[in-house]
Amino acid sequence: MLINLQNYFGPEIIYLWLSFGVLPFWLTLIFFPNSRVSLIFISSIFLPIIFSLIYVYMIYQLIINGENIFESFDLYLGIENLHSLFANDILLLIFWIHFLGIGLFLGSWASRDALRYSVPKFLSGISLISIYFTGPLGLVLYWFIRIFYSKKISLHD
User: Fold this and answer.
1) What is d(CA 16, CA 13) in angstroms, rounded to the nearest whole number?
2) Looking at residues 21-38, what average pLDDT do you find?
3) Residue 47's CB: how many other CB atoms inside 10 A?
4) How far apart are CA 139 and CA 5, in angstroms?
5) For 65-88, where are the alpha helices, taking DSSP H only?
6) Would you give the DSSP letter of residue 41?
7) What is the maximal distance between C-alpha atoms in the chain?
8) C-beta neighbour count of 51 within 10 angstroms
9) CA triplet 109, 111, 116: central angle to 5 degrees?
10) Contact (Cβ atoms closer than 8 angstroms) between residue 111 and residue 26
11) Are 99 and 132 in contact (CB under 8 A)?
């Protein structure tokens, strides 16, 4: 059964599904942050479970392809190792899943936090879009907006 999955769900197909599949969640965070869909699917454990299952499937693909998964830790030894690691489509896809999961988590937090401090949707939307594209830079933008609406400077939550 897993061999059949391998034929239909290669790295390119999974990449496309993930890349386009997260867009409705981001749009929900931007336009309907307090909706039931947002609470059930985005702010819950639902998406991390889905990403984890795909992550495990990709690690399984590495193992059956004969890759040494422990060599992936060489990425910490230099940028050349990181570059060579990203030459492997499956490892690159694992990092993409990692990036998408953390980005959605961060967007979900910023969206809920914006609701708590009554940040206008327009400003929280700009922040969420910048978090989607730039991650930490978008978070810093949101933090500056949050300072204005919460009327306090806080380095932690």
Assistant:
1) 5
2) 91
3) 19
4) 37
5) 79-86
6) I
7) 57
8) 19
9) 95
10) no
11) no
Per-residue pLDDT tens over the stretch 58-73: 988 888 888 777 777 7
Q: Which two tokens stand for residue 10?
A: 């290669």
Q: Residues in the chain, how many?
A: 157
Task: Check: pTM over 0.90? Answer yes or no.
Answer: no
Let me know: does 127 contact 110? Beta carbons within 8 Å: yes
CA-derived radius of gyration, the chain: 18
Give the whole-angstrom CA distance, residue 18 versus residue 62: 19
- The first and second tokens of residue 44, run together, are 């819950």
Tell me, rounded to whole angstroms, the distance of Cα 105 from its chain centroid: 7
Please provide the DSSP assignment of 124-152 as one string: HHHHHHHHHHHTHHHHHHHHHHHHHHHTS
Two structure tokens written together for 114 = 């914006």
Angle formed by the axes of helices 89-116 and 79-86, nearest 10°: 100
- pLDDT over 90 (residue 137): yes
* Residue 81 confidence class, pLDDT cut points 50, 70, 90: confident
